[in-house]
Protein: Choline transporter-like protein
Amino acid sequence: VLSMILMVIIRYISRVLVWILTILVILGSLGGTGVLWWLYAKQRMSASAVETQIAKDNLQALLIYAISATVFTVILFLIMLIMRKRVALTIALFHVAGKVFLHLPLLVFQPFWTFFVLILFWTYWITVLLFLGTTGSPVPNEEGFVEFRMVGPLKYMWWYHVVGLVWISEFILACQQMTVAGAVVTYYFTREKRNLPFTPILASVNRLVCYHLGTVAKGSFIITLVKIPRMILMYIHTQLKGKENACARCMLKACICCLWCLEKCLTYLNQNAYTATAINSTNFCTSAKDAFVILVENALRVAAINTVGDFMLFLGKVLIVCSTGLAGIMLLNYQRDYTIWVLPLIIVCLFAFLVAHCFLSIYEMVVDVLFLCFAIDTKYNDGSPGREFYMDKVLMEFVENSRKSMKEAGRGGGAEGRELKPM
Structure:
């Protein structure tokens, strides 16, 4: 519910969303920290001489929560204090993204369809796994139970099944990214918004099925090639825990970390490659090369605009998790006699973050697609007759402000002007 409310807020008040979100997160963090310390002091003062082990555990958990919330609030406040000058750069993209959701309301429901398809596939995968588990010859063991012992190639079929799980799951997520990219690209490069297709989402799905399934399959397969070795290394690290020496443990963790970073970079590049495919209808490798060139040419803007936008959406997720966790604390405060607080709150906050991520990741995709469209638009157009911009007026104002800031900083020798240098 909180995720849907935040999506509505993003849609209708995108101009002031960044500032509202910043203030709410600061107030929420301060309020949540104060409530935690108040509950801790209240329980400690009302504690009786004979305390149960559950009451002691709850009191210790409250102290840990309060200290963690205090440290988190201080770090969050310092980060937002440092990034306050760049908040204005995000408002333009957020405003245009709000207009996208206004014209394409079906984008809000993309997490539902993706989750539904993933559930269907995971159900099928588990069913096949159960069939594989009972494939072979039934043989009674020494304890009187029956085991199904597989011989030949069937023993290694579960490896193929695991690879299929990772690849097809990534394929379904990539289809969502391609669908969102196609719809947003259609919106951006349509000068007259009244001439948009009746259902840009369905039109994007139709183009995906007819022309771009190979692109999506190749992109998801590249992610699988990185994810599978990382999973194998994590399995080896788990099996050898406590047995390997310090050097081997350090090397394993370093390899796992490097593969994780490579996976994140490839995922981001793939998403921009899908956007380039939606714009130019080129194959995956050509689109990935074009997207990489655009991102390198706009490295400072990627850092200044895209990262700040993602950070603001992360703050939205934090706001949802804090609100949900605070509600859980207030409810569990009246059930202190028979429940342990740690595990329920961890589960509540985990699921709250996952749900918020599913919804706000759609907005994050829209902002990323808009940024790449904006970069391509400014690369091939300059606003002159015959080369008019496709961008929204808000982004045009941002370009003009960037040029003015660059000129002023050029006269003053400031660094901010170099950061806003237009292409």
Q: What stands out?
A: The beta strands are 137-140, 146-149.
